[in-house]
Amino acid sequence: MSGKPSVDITILLTSFKVGEAERVMSEAAASLEVCHTFPGTKNGIPVTFTLQSSTTSPSMGDQSVHVRVVSVSAAENLVTTYLFVRAGNTIVRFMSAGPTLDGIPSVVDFPAREQVEKLMDIR
């Protein structure tokens, strides 16, 4: 065991009707401009979620949105990084999650660009 925290990485593809993926991405980007913090619960424990849009967001596909969600509670602190990329009528969601420690990888640190290029080639 290396002593490094574990990090989960997932990829999800969602197909939309013509024009819907572009609308969803535009609405998501707009909501990030006005929604920065919100309360919630996780396993019955109050949690504060903070959204951090990336200013170094990679430009991929037809549209891309990069956001980090920091969740802080009495039980744990987590960072979840999302990269949403639209290629035509498909949105791919890359997600990495792990504890809030230095050196936590983000979705940009794994081959997201290569996966998006494959999707762009087949669309």
Walkthrough of the structure:
Strand 2 (about 35-40) and strand 3 (about 45-55) form a beta hairpin. It contains two helices and six strands. It has one domain (about 10-120): PknH-like extracellular domain (Protein Transport Mog1p, Chain A, 3-Layer(aba) Sandwich). It has a six-stranded antiparallel β-sheet. The chain is α+β, with helices and mostly antiparallel strands and about 120 residues long. The chain has helices at about 20-35, 110-120; strands spanning about 10-15, 35-40, 45-55, 65-75, 75-85, 90-100. The model has no long low-confidence stretch (mean pLDDT about 80).
Mind sketching the topology for me?
Blueprint: E1 8-15, H1 20-34, E2 37-42, E3 45-53, E4 63-73, E5 77-87, E6 90-99, H2 112-122
Antiparallel strand pairs: 1-6, 2-3, 3-4, 4-5, 5-6
DSSP helical segment count: 2
Number of domains: 1
Rg calculated over all Cα atoms = 15 Å
Poorly predicted sequence stretches spanning 5 or more consecutive residues: none
Mean pLDDT: 79
CATH superfamily caption: PknH-like extracellular domain
What strand line-up does the widest sheet have?
1-6-5-4-3-2
CATH C-level:
Alpha Beta
- CATH architecture heading: 3-Layer(aba) Sandwich
Separation of termini?
41 Å
**Dominant shape:** globular
Query: What share of residues is helical?
Result: 10-25%
Largest sheet: 6 strands, antiparallel
Strand content: 35-45%
Question: What is the H/E string?
Answer: EHEEEEEH
List keywords for this structure.
alpha+beta, 21% helix, Protein Transport Mog1p, Chain A, 123 residues, 6 strands, six-stranded antiparallel sheet, globular
